[in-house]
Design brief:
Rossmann fold, 5-stranded parallel β-sheet, 11 helices
């Protein structure tokens, strides 16, 4: 089959490695970093952020679309689903398994707005591991942000451009994000609160929680959007 995969995540990379020898694959990634993590895969790669009209043009000749975008990339998912409906192309959503985290100092926030309310009532330095796209929002809504916020961001050209005018203390780095590296950041900057999205095991959340427990600091965990779809093995079985 001719399959398009909305990629840029570790989930997508794992899927591609499992099916690239059996099907003709085109991966759609938003950034150069998305391309970089697929450099050892023998596939076609389309780079750049696409509108609905762009997707309508580029997806028209595919047999199947697999959406393996990030769990919090809701806008991309809605666009791709809509395009597949209009083009009458089979759409599959690859979802991450939800995990119960064994830590009693996790505070669930239903949204980033709720997270800001919670953080503004707390004291101490904050480490955000929520990505560069939400940086501006937190900067404008968290009390004393510039004095108490540290933000870990991907060290890419795009991220640096987005963050260039931020007042946050920014830590640029690239995966793999090890527990030791996170522990060092928390110790060095006297971090009292860790903020993360509920991005699952693939998003490195287990490592974050392990270190939060070790350092005895709370985790503000932003709830993952509700969605339906198939896990990796189920998609492989479906394709077979």
């Amino acid at each position: 089959m001719k399959i398009a995969i909305i990629a840029g995540t570790s989930d997508a990379t794992e899927l591609i490695k499992n099916i690239s020898e059996k099907h003709e694959i085109t991966a759609f990634v938003a950034t150069d970093y998305g391309k970089e993590i697929l450099k050892n895969c023998n596939i076609n790669i389309n780079i750049g952020r696409l509108s609905k009209q762009d997707f309508l043009k580029k997806l028209v000749n595919f047999d199947c679309i697999i959406d393996a975008s990030h769990p919090f990339a809701e806008q991309v998912t809605e666009i791709v689903k809509s395009v597949c409906e209009e083009l009458n192309i089979n759409y599959l959503r690859l979802i991450r398994e939800k995990i119960n985290y064994n830590y009693n100092n996790i505070i669930i926030a239903d949204s980033k707005q709720k997270a800001c309310v919670i953080l503004s009532k707390m004291t101490g330095n904050i480490l955000f591991t929520t990505g560069v796209k939400s940086l501006n929002f937190y900067e404008n809504h968290v009390k004393n942000f510039s004095d108490r916020a540290w933000v870990r961001i991907l060290n890419t050209q795009e991220s640096r451009k987005i963050a260039e005018n931020s007042k946050a203390n920014i830590i640029f780095s690239l995966p793999p994000f090890t527990e030791q590296a996170l522990f060092s950041i928390i110790q060095k900057y006297n971090i009292n609160i860790l903020v993360s999205k509920d991005s699952g095991e693939k998003g490195g959340l287990i490592q974050k929680i392990n270190i939060a427990k070790k350092c005895n600091i709370p985790v503000i965990l932003i709830k993952r959007p509700e969605e339906t779809g198939l896990q990796l093995q189920e998609i492989l079985e479906y394709l077979n």
